[in-house]
UniProtKB/TrEMBL annotation:
Superkingdom of this protein's organism: Bacteria
Gene3D superfamilies, alphabetized: P-loop containing nucleotide triphosphate hydrolases
Protein name: ABC transporter related protein
Organism in which the protein naturally occurs: Pseudofrankia inefficax (strain DSM 45817 / CECT 9037 / DDB 130130 / EuI1c)
Pfam families per record: ABC_tran
Amino acid sequence: MGPRLSTSTSDAAAREIPGRRAPVLEVSDLRMTFGPTVALDGVALTVERGQVHALLGENGSGKSTLIKILAGYHRPDPGGRVLVAGRPLPFGNPTVADSHGCRFVHQDLGLVDSLSVVENLFLTSGFPSRWGTIRWPRLLRAAREDLARVGLDLDPRRPVAGLSPAVRTGLAVARALRPGAAEVALLVLDEPTATLPDDEVRQLLDIVRAVAAAGTGVLYVTHHLDEVFDVADVATVLRDGRVVATTPVPDLTRGRLVNQLLGSELDEAHASSQALPAPRARAVLKVRDVAAGPLRSLSVQVRAGELVGIAGLTGSGRESVLAAVFGMLRAERGEVMVNDVSLRPGDPRRAIDAGVAYLPANRKTHGGIMNLTGAANLTLPDLGPLWRPPLLRLGEERTVARTWFAKLDVRPAAAVHLPLAALSGGNQQKVLLAKWLRCRPRVLLLDEPTQGVDIGAKAQIHQQIVAAADGGAAVVVSSADVDELVALCHRVVVLRGGHAVAELSGEALSVPAVNRAALAAERTT
Ligand SMILES: Nc1ncnc2c1ncn2[C@@H]1O[C@H](COP(=O)(O)OP(=O)(O)OP(=O)(O)O)[C@@H](O)[C@H]1O
């Protein structure tokens, strides 16, 4: 399953040394500027066959820009060179990237929920047919082969809608690896585990190992340091568009990796352990017997100044809780009260008027407005203080934005003026969080608040969430990241099978205890 090597003279650069096959990817001197921003500055990187090569870096360090160049989406500044399995890759053409054997699985997996596994597998490549009739037996056989290639034992006729996130990601990988015009030399995975719970991360890492074992080189973008040690052979760290280091993983320690990432030591234990404020007596948010989708029943009360976590595996109902409380997802049953106001199912407007702010997990579909500036996105929900009819005081808006962006370390400094689309993914997340923190909500609902955020910024975000609670907000955080919940919350409600099966606080609150409760077969409360 090696990469096909061209024999044309223009591909003399194929550089076949007898007995040694060219690396699947060789990047040299890659530079990319967006106006005054230097996103990549002389980047060089090599991925060998069968290697898992982790690519890390702070938010805005240039990872996505590099991937977008490989995918043919961006054209870099002149001078850089990319070889795929020894063949020069022409820039700015997604089809050519594909025919050179580069495949990509982005965070947005591009699956169609209403279709089956087999239909999704053939969606992009077309269905084999004879005289206009789809040859289903052949299709199902090929689908089983595709799934087996990534170690997935799955009925291809199943609808995609019911699959867990790890299996969905595996399916997207299987689709990317479908044999096509060129054999797959390089698979690029862009933060594939951003919102996966621990047990699903393990499942996905098995898939990544299986892909590499078959000879494909894998470029694996992540912010999760544990995954580097679990799955990667080599790690390259970018900072401000430059390669800081490329190190074989056996030569790395966690401390050394953090140092490469941040340019300084970060005391992670210290950074994530916050002194939590003392909750007030008054319950601000009262949720009683709410059911919505996989969530069968949840009752919880949250006091002013209190931080409550929601934990649970995929399918436990965790992902539905905050959307149902906010009203974005119509609850089938139950009651939500904010102080004395009763919220209505499916009526987010009423929730906002009652002082509820909700940061959804999916910033692409429910998040910010990509063509508005960072400052405009920040101030959008509450323009009142900036409004002097008939004018919006733009200077004041920028000052407010600068203050908030400094608190959350939004980069670059020009983010205030830049459209949201020009910010890196992690920095977009920080802007959207700042937007709701600024509104000083009575109830703050946060779904995966630090997804895609680097380890340094995560600590800053946690500080600001705690500060919101200190200011009197009742905060509920739903996260697949159990470490985050344990570091940030007074108590954590664990869901399983749509019900709350445990509530852990004080001494009893720990990562193993939450994981045990999430996995335990029986209900413990
Ligand atoms: N379309 C664009 N226009 C202007 N600047 C851009 C554009 N895309 C990226 N940038 C800038 O290039 C730099 C690198 O961004 P990039 O998205 O590559 O970072 P990243 O390492 O992927 O970050 P993250 O971990 O947050 O996803 C950032 O300063 C970003 O603001």
